[in-house]
Each structure stands twice: as C-alpha cells, then as structure tokens.
Design goal:
single chain; 152 residues; alpha+beta; 30% strand
Length: 152
C-alpha cells in the first residue's frame, strides 16, 4: 500500500468520525445547568445556562456548578476563571473573590456550526486530492525509462 493511499484512508476515517460526532449532537438534548454564586454575606445567586452573560458585582466565597454547562467568571482587573468541573470551586482556587460578570461558554450548548462542518469537509477533500496527486506524481512505470538512449 502506497503512502498516498494510506493518507487517503486516514483522512476518510477522520471525516467519518467528524460526521458521526455531528450526527450524535443533532439527536441529543441541549445541555442545561447553572452556576450558583455564594457570597460572603450568606446570600446566593443562581445563574442559568440559558443566560449568555450576566453582569454582577459581588464578593464570593465559592461557586457551585450544576449540570453540564460551562461558565467563565470575570473580575474587575480582567482576570478570568473557566468553570468546567461540576461541583464546588472556592475563591482561593479561583484566584479572586470579586466577580464582575459571569459568561456562559457557548460551545457547550451548540455543536459544530454548519459553516464549520462545510469548511472541514472541503479542507479534507482538498487534502485527499493533493495526496492522490502527489502519490501519482511519484509513481514511475518500470521499464519505460530504463536503457533509453537518445539517438542522434
């Protein structure tokens, strides 16, 4: 088996994995969840995954992530903390305790967009065609160039 054939098989297998992953997302329910902010004054604030961005200005002691959504906490100084693990995250782990805004990560609710899928498929097709053309260019026919002499 030539290298170009191996490359073509590799790309086609990867394409099938992408297609299966995209089809699996279509049949699944959207991911929902939320994050609860626990403030120093023993109050709480729940932010649902249906909210894209929430402006808050609170001092937290911890946050608890529920469900399968992910969020990013932002402070006034521009620092951020990505909350992806379900469960409790204390302020010491986060690195700051004053939260300015909470932003939901859009990647956990949406699959691969259609345009991203189309670009991926086009890229794979271009790579496969290039691999085939490079493979054909390197093939030499036995006996064609051997013992050939120019007669003058």
């Amino acid at each position: 088996m030539t290298a170009s054939v191996k490359i073509c098989i590799f790309f086609l297998l990867n394409l099938s994995v992408v297609l299966r992953a995209d089809m699996a997302r279509d049949g699944e329910e959207p991911c929902y969840g939320g994050i609860t902010l626990y403030m120093d004054d023993n109050t709480t604030r729940f932010i649902s995954s249906k909210q894209a961005k929430v402006e808050v200005l609170v001092i937290i002691s911890k946050v608890v992530l529920d469900g399968c959504a992910c969020f990013t906490l932002h402070d006034k100084r521009g620092r951020s903390y990505f909350v992806e693990r379900i469960g409790e995250h204390i302020a010491k782990e986060i690195g700051f305790n004053q939260v300015r805004s909470v932003v939901r990560d859009p990647g956990d609710l949406n699959g691969l967009p259609v345009w991203g899928f189309v670009i991926t498929v086009i890229g794979v097709v271009i790579l496969v065609v290039a691999a085939i053309l490079l493979g054909l260019k390197s093939v030499t026919l036995p006996g064609v160039c051997e013992n050939s002499k120019l007669e003058t």
